[in-house]
Every structure is written in structure tokens, then in C-alpha cells.
Amino acid sequence: MSNLIPNAKEPKSLRGSSSFLSSASSTFDPLLAGRAIVNGLEYLKQRLGWSGAKIAKTLHLPANTVTTWLNNGTVPLSSAILHPDIQAIIHLLAIHRSLEAMFDDPAHQRIWLSTFHPELNVIPEKMMGESIDGLIFVRQYLDYVRGRGA
Questions:
Q1: Strands (DSSP E) along the chain, which ranges?
Q2: The whole model's pTM is what?
Q3: How far apart are CA 135 and CA 88, in angstroms?
Q4: What distances in angstroms separate CA 97 from CA 82, 92, 137, 139, one per listed residue?
Q5: Residue 104 φ/ψ, nearest 5 degrees
Q6: 144 sits in which H/E element
Q7: DSSP structure class, residue 122
Q8: What is the SS3 assignment for 31?
Q9: Which one, of 128, 74, 121, lies nearest residue 99 by Cα?
Q10: Tell me, what's the pLDDT at 20?
Q11: Nearest-angstrom CA–CA distance, 97 and 95
């Protein structure tokens, strides 16, 4: 490059020059990940006014399991391969992320979840409570709606 443009500098490589990338660890920390999941669930509880039992019902998990996770401040993870229960939590958090992007007011988020939608032919909260497939469907629907500019 210096042959083509006098006094030009070689471009820096992102991988070679970034202190963030060189200091970031690529190893999975199950304790950190477990705490992050609980932080997301606590935020969801606070924003939507849901109880641990309601979250557990939506995730199709025993209420005492979710309560234990919330009380301990972590979800026990053993590897980076996510158990289906953890995947369900991630779907629920993604639904909430979409609702946060669509509505600033948590009351509007709750209303969206509890209102019949003709395009879905169901109340989203009811669909999510019926099965994990319903939870995934609502997530996919919201991802689609947000992708179209909602």
C-alpha cells in the first residue's frame, strides 16, 4: 500500500490491534451465564409485574425450581450447550426484548401479551402457557413484526 500512496499507513487489523478483542475470553463461564439469566428473569418480573410462579408456568418448569434459581441468584449451568429449559428462558427473554423495543410502557407490554390478536388467532400469553412451541411461535412472530418495522 505504501508503494501506491506516499506516506500512507497500513490499515490496522481489528484482531491484532484491539485491546478488547485480545482481552476478551472465549471460555464459557457457567456461573457468569447463570447469573446473567437470573438477572434477565428478575428484570422481566419487575417490568411485567410477573411472579416467579407465572414465569415458571410460562416456561413449563416447576415453580420451586424457578424460585430456587431466583433465590440463589443463578441458574445452574454445566456447559455451553444449553439445556431445553435454558433455551425456553432465552425465548421468553427474547419476547420481552421485542416488547421492550415496541413499547416503552410495561403496561402496554402486558396488554399486548394478554389481548387477543386476530393475526395469531389467540392471546399470546395463553399460547405461551400451552407449550414450548407456543413460546417459540410468539417469539418468532414478534421477531417478524419487529423486522417489518414495528
A1: none
A2: 0.76
A3: 8
A4: 20, 9, 15, 10
A5: -75, -35
A6: helix 132-147
A7: B
A8: helix
A9: 128
A10: 44
A11: 5
The C-alpha cell 445452574 sits at: 76
Cell of 137: 411461535
Of 17-21, 56-60, 81-85, 130-134, the poorest mean pLDDT is in: 17-21
Q: Which amino acid is at 33?
A: A
Cell 484482531: give the residue: 15
Neighbouring CB atoms inside 10 A of 6's CB total 6
Which of helix, strand or coil describes residue 137?
helix
Count how many residues are written for the chain.
150
d(CA 67, CA 143): 29
Q: 142: which residues sit within 8 A by CB, 6+ positions away?
A: 94, 95, 98, 99, 102
Angle at the Cα of 6 from the Cα atoms of 4 and 7, rounded to 5 degrees:
130
Task: Name the residue ranges covered by the structural domains of the chain.
Answer: 29-147
